[in-house]
Amino acid sequence: MNRLALDFAPRSVRYWWARSGAALRAALVGATLALSAGLWWAMEIQSDRLQLQQALARTAPAAVPPPQQRTLLAAKGALAIDAAQAKAMNRALVALNRPWPELWDALERVSSAAGVQVAILEMRPDSAASDQDPGLAQGLRLLAESKDSAHMLGFMRRLRAEPFFVSAVLSSHQVNAQDPNMPLRFEVMLRWMQASP
Prior knowledge:
This protein has 197 residues and is α+β, with helices and mostly antiparallel strands. 52% of the residues lie in helices and 18% in strands.
């Protein structure tokens, strides 16, 4: 006699949960956890953004005087600055107005090339470049690390071949003896043409 497959249970969530495999259950639990973690992270970012906006709103009115007060301060000579302060302010503006997106794109093109095994550890704007030559007012110092000198020289060749940079000079290099892998740590001075206003 043939066995009959009779199932009188209603098709509920409990039925499908019992019939599903362990992998499907684990995937559903994982997706639920990931979704809840994502929602929690988004709420944290929104909370941080709101706190920053409130702090900025509290400090912004005090930082910028109204136009009438600005003209009074200028009339009293309160805004007079000497040459050293003006030079320092101009250096800060040059550092802030660097073409960061283009710079990042150029460095990513160099580091994404095949065979480049270099880690960039530090980037420092170099304001001394504007004092030496106004046409090459943009400069940057990179501190990087590579496995050996062949990778360092390959990285330097790719930097010099990148059209964004006018010059790439290796200013120093040393073996990091504190690390058991003995990587080569080096500093590169990059220059690029200043964008015309």
